[in-house]
Design brief:
The complex is a heterotrimer of chains A (about 350), B (about 90) and C (about 280). Chain A is built from eleven helices and twelve strands. Chain A is of the alpha+beta class and about 350 residues long. Chain A has one domain. In chain A, the strands form two sheets. Chain A has an eight-stranded mixed sheet. Chain B is globular and about 40 Å long. Chain B has three helices and no strands. Chain C has two domains: about 90 residues, Elongation Factor Tu (Ef-tu), domain 3, CATH 2.40.30; about 130 residues, Rossmann fold (3-Layer(aba) Sandwich). In chain C, helix 5 packs parallel to helix 6. The chains are: A alpha+beta (about 350), B mainly alpha (about 90), C alpha/beta (about 280). Chains B and C meet through loops of B and helix 2 of C.
């Protein structure tokens, strides 16, 4: 695929072209001293100096709260209407290669036998423009989970920054090709002088062996190993890791409203919360925080690989950066690899 | 019984959650700032905490965390408590 | 747009108070086409909505051989079940299902079947019992061992009477020591002990077990003593559920999702599960 050049100064035009028809342009921007993915209408609302935004763009395929049905309770019965959604065309600009791979994981679970159209409709209208990393911080560990800044999995258009601040773009998927054709006036032919900045490939963490981890987790006796309680002692179940993680998908279905009418909603939930598995009888299979943390780790490194071909963890490092007590998933990976 | 306090993350749900948190903190918050430090999205919670501390000080002449022998003001009823906010 | 989370509307046509805190509802779908076409297999579950309060998971307690309605039995323990408890005949509820796997009745053709249930564990087993009785010639001896803490806690009392009267069923009822009333004619003792006493033959027999975890634990031990292989012992698990379709990440026991790879399991599969109960 021949590279095309997207000039930095044309970003405003690109955003305008996408949003003029009702589309949504999501890009990293500065908010409350943090870089977050948010909807922008002008290029000056974007920031280009970031490792990775604090939140993931899963908000736009899997909203924090959404209505799935509306009901009205009448004297002679109930009026029930399933919600229909018509998501706008959404463009995510500035995703990193690690989190681009997370869409495959979300799609695996949301299309497992039953197709969740609240997800698929949104993902079908989403175009991901990945910007490959030219820097990393201590929390990045994509290479440890077999991804890398060179990975194009999940990207529709893969962009590499040049020294001038422009982007060399290559279409990866049909969606990406269609996108670049639609806005072909902004994707010019690249000259030979346009050279991409060197990508920064973080070093794989030495002591971590994914195969050993999966085998160790396959052994059910290890489920009761005291290592779990020791390593996750400081976790207090705030759920920040779950909410910022691009592959976490747990949700709650709840009714809200008055005596006469209301909505059925699908809301983000976290297996880290105590009430997550609490039965009405009072029994809770995961009644201690280490059990809940153990479940999160198992889900990412054992359950996902067993059930789906997509990965449970993309190594973006958000969970580590956002944790108030600096609980580090790579430390647990290292400890288990060393067993 | 319906869900009186909604758990959803829409503006109404978030507001009710934060209001309840404020009511629980009034008279207890010692302004350590950990909540703001922990917040992954940098919500300036300390602004709310500061307002709570000042309001409690003004209404009850009480500062939380200074005297271990004093009862937290919101769990104690005293006939001298101001009632001028009840209209 | 297909909405997998949208319940079907159903009218409550029958309410039966099994015990002071357990009720059985019979539901008929409001959509006529669905009424005729609805099918499920014994062992599957559904998510029942009390509109305005939420959804709860219960097995379908009626047998798939009885068309035109579904029945479920529940105990009032929380907000949703409390709301359901207050509903009456003619009220509308939601029904989402059937989900999950089922008891492989066709594999049991020609075998004897032993049902062991305790307390509120009888509803899921009831579906299997009636399914077997409706195809009685497919099975050999049918034994039912059912017990509860006290006489008042026994569910499906009128059906127990019917099963006890049938010549082609061996019904053994029991209550825990201390739970009997002066006119109680059944046995007195814990279900696992009464099962051992009843000593059904393990030869060419499958067992279906459901009840409180402690009862299941000791019943599995008793069945082992009687010579049952864990491959021939079936049980049905429950776990807190919300979506019922393998997406909300809540009901897994280790790497097994109860809503997708359950709720019916053999004792062999249970033994192989992670300690996530």
């Amino acid at each position: 695929m021949t590279d095309k050049l997207l000039k930095r100064e044309n970003l405003d035009k690109l955003i305008g072209s996408v949003t003029v028809g009702g589309g949504v342009f999501v890009a990293p921007g500065m908010e409350a001293r943090r870089v977050v993915f948010r909807e922008v209408t002008r290029a000056d609302e974007m920031t280009h100096d970031y490792i990775i935004p604090v939140n993931s763009y899963k908000d736009w395929v899997f909203p924090q709260t959404e209505v799935i049905a509306r009901f009205a309770i009448k004297k002679d019965g109930v009026d029930l209407k399933g919600e229909k959604i018509e998501p706008p065309e959404t463009v995510v600009f500035g995703a990193r290669p690690c989190e681009a791979a997370s869409l495959a994981s979300l799609r695996s679970v949301f299309t497992w036998d039953f197709i969740d159209e609240f997800y698929t409709r949104r993902e079908d209208r989403l175009t991901v423009l990945t910007v490959a990393c030219t820097a990393a911080d201590d929390e990045c560990f994509c290479t440890t989970v077999e991804l890398s800044p060179e990975s194009t999995v999940g990207s529709d258009v893969y962009l590499k920054e040049t020294a001038d601040g422009d982007y060399l773009a290559s279409a990866i998927t049909d969606k990406g090709t269609a996108f670049m054709e639609k806005y072909s006036t902004l994707f010019e032919g690249a000259s030979a002088e346009a050279k991409p900045k060197e990508l920064f490939i973080p070093e794989k963490i030495d002591g971590i062996d994914l195969d050993r981890i999966k085998k160790w987790l396959d052994n059910k006796d290890h489920y009761d190993d005291p290592l779990w309680a020791e390593l996750s002692r400081k976790c207090f179940g705030c759920g920040a890791c779950t909410f910022s993680c691009p592959t976490c998908h747990c949700f709650d279905i709840t009714d809200e409203g008055t005596t006469y009418e209301g909505e059925k909603r699908k809301n983000w939930d976290a297996c880290q919360f105590e009430h997550f598995t609490l039965h009405a009888s009072g029994h809770n299979p995961r009644d201690a925080q280490f059990k809940r943390w153990r479940n999160r780790f198992m889900c990412k490194f054992n359950i996902y690989p067993k059930k789906f071909t997509s990965t449970g963890c993309v190594g973006c490092g958000r969970c580590i950066r956002v944790c108030p007590v600096r609980h580090d998933i790579t430390e647990v990976m290292e400890a288990i690899s060393g067993r | 019984m319906p869900q009186w306090v909604e758990t959803s993350a829409h503006p109404r749900g978030n507001l009710s959650w934060n209001l309840i948190r404020a009511m629980h903190l009034a008279g207890r918050c010692t302004f350590c700032g950990e909540c703001e430090r922990s917040c992954p999205v940098n919500i300036p919670l300390n602004l709310v905490n500061q307002k709570l501390v000042l309001t409690v000080k003004d209404a009850f002449s009480y500062r939380s965390g200074y005297d271990e022998k004093e009862h937290p003001t919101m769990i104690v009823y005293s006939p001298e408590d101001k009632e001028n906010f009840i209209k | 747009m297909e909405n997998i989370y949208l319940p079907h509307l159903a009218t409550i046509t029958d309410v039966y108070e099994e015990t002071p805190d357990v009720k059985s509802f019979r539901l008929v779908f409001q959509d006529e086409k669905l009424r005729d076409s609805f099918e499920f297999k014994t062992g599957q579950f559904a998510l029942y909505s009390a509109f305005g309060l939420g959804e709860s998971t219960f097995c379908i307690a009626s047998s798939p051989t009885r068309r035109g309605y579904v029945q479920f039995t529940f105990r009032r323990v929380g907000r949703v079940t409390g709301g359901l408890f207050d509903l009456s005949i003619g009220d509308t509820m939601g029904f989402r299902g059937p989900y999950g796997n089922w008891f492989p009745l066709d594999e049991w053709k020609g075998k004897n079947v032993v049902f062991v249930a305790g307390g509120i564990g009888l509803p899921p087993v009831r579906s299997v019992i009636w399914n077997c009785l409706d195809r009685r010639e497919d099975f050999g001896d049918i034994t039912i061992v059912y017990g509860a803490r006290r006489v008042a806690d026994l569910v499906y009392k009128n059906e127990l009477e019917h099963w006890g009267d049938r010549k082609d069923v061996n019904l053994v009822q029991t209550v825990d020591p201390g739970g009997q009333t002066p006119d109680w004619k059944g046995k007195v003792g814990f279900v696992p002990a009464v099962l051992e006493e009843t000593a059904p033959s393990a030869k060419n027999t499958v067992a279906v077990v459901c009840g409180p975890p402690i009862m299941i634990k000791f019943t599995l031990q008793a069945l082992e003593k009687l010579g049952f292989s864990t491959d021939d012992v079936y049980t049905t698990l429950e776990n807190k559920m919300k979506c019922g379709v393998g997406k909300c990440g809540r009901c897994n026991v280790g790497d097994v999702y109860v809503c997708k790879e359950g709720p019916v399991y053999t004792a062999t599969e249970i033994k192989r599960m992670y300690n996530d109960f």
